[in-house]
Amino acid sequence: MADTAERSQPGLNPAQQRALDLLRTRGVDRPEFPAGLAEELRGVVEDALCGALGQLDEPLWVGKFALGRVHGCEVRFLHEDGRTLTPGPALVAGTVAHRAIQLSVTWRGDASPLELVDAAVERIEADGDRDSRWLAQASPAEQAEVVGTAAERVGKFLECFPPLRRTWAPATESPLRALLADGQVVLTGRVDLVLGRSQGMEAGKAFVDFKTGVPYLGHVEDLRFYALVETLRLGVPPFRLASYYLDGAVLHCEDVTVDLLHAAARRVGEGVRKLVALRAGEREPVLRPGPGCRRCPLLADCAEGRAHLADEELG
């Protein structure tokens, strides 16, 4: 992403410089991966799916959300499986903020967070999708909440993340897709920000996801899943994964290795196998209390979840 001369740029505040130092790709060794890695990983996943594929009547689409749920509390997974996520101010504000950050990459001249957010809202309203319909029906107070929350997130991005140069080949909301078992299983993802390019079998991309709140193990697993999908799709993985926490201007980075990708492949294989078995009623769902209990719709009737949260508070 940045060459050696860019490691210390005038005009960057300390938070921006820290992020630049962690994300730079040129001037450090970029790994080369074996040419047969993608097929090796494909075999790991497909071998784990033997026996489950015969139960599929149509292609199974799997993303990070379903994987995270099925590897967590399986009772909650079944309760929420197939339900349409209802938009609200918090969810729509996240969509608006991501669209505004995307616009900031190619925006000519300077723009304030509110200008970027207003432009993002205009484009979302023109899409005619779920978020567009919600915005059309939202009250003025709800719309103001969305704009205010999104503008705060965009402002934090602009003040804490180094300005993106076009030479870094930035791509926002970059979709990923990989087909397994002749298309019977489709892995999908969308990376908030991709920087750099791969050359041959030399990894050159950094994947960045923007987060609010505090670090959570699931965020790491999500990025590893993206790295696996990219490898299956392109044949070459990214070289670095990063979660950027806007509230604290903290960047958590992890370099991609063959072992990491194999672990991600095993996790996907196991997760898809459990997902299929749960939907077919061939597996008794396992209740697993964890960080998600606090926002679980089943909490009122879940003694284990309430006990887990009580233990957390006692600490």
Based on the model shown, name its key terms:
single chain; 315 residues; alpha/beta; 2 domains; six-stranded mixed β-sheet; 11 helices; 6 strands; 48% helix; globular; disordered N terminus
Secondary structure category: alpha/beta
Domain count = 2
Assign a percent range to the helix content: 40-55%
Largest sheet: 6 strands, mixed
- What kind of oligomer do you see? single chain
State mean pLDDT (0 to 100 scale): 88
Low-confidence stretches: 1-7
In DSSP terms (H or I, runs of 4 or more residues), the helix count works out at: 11
Strand content: 5-15%
N-to-C order of helices and strands: HHEHHHHHHEEEHEEHH
- How many β-strand runs? 6
Task: Estimate the global geometry from the Cα principal axes.
Answer: globular
The separation of the N and C termini measures: 42 Å
CA-atom Rg in angstroms: 21 Å
Q: Topology, pairings included?
A:
Layout: H1 14-23, H2 37-48, E1 60-62, H3 64-70, H4 74-80, H5 89-106, H6 113-127, H7 130-137, H8 140-160, E2 171-180, E3 185-195, E4 206-211, H9 217-234, E5 240-245, E6 250-255, H10 258-279, H11 303-314
Parallel strand pairs: 1-3, 4-5
Antiparallel strand pairs: 2-3, 3-4, 5-6
Helix pairs in contact: 2-9, 2-10, 5-6, 5-8, 6-7, 6-8, 9-10
Compact description:
This protein is of the alpha/beta class. It is built from eleven helices and six strands.
Task: Give your account of this protein's structure.
This protein has 315 residues and is of the alpha/beta class. The protein folds into two domains: 4-84 and 169-279, no CATH class; 89-166. Helix content is 48%, strand content 13%. Helix 5 packs across helix 8 (140-160) and helix 6 (113-127) packs across helix 7. The N and C termini lie far apart (42 Å).
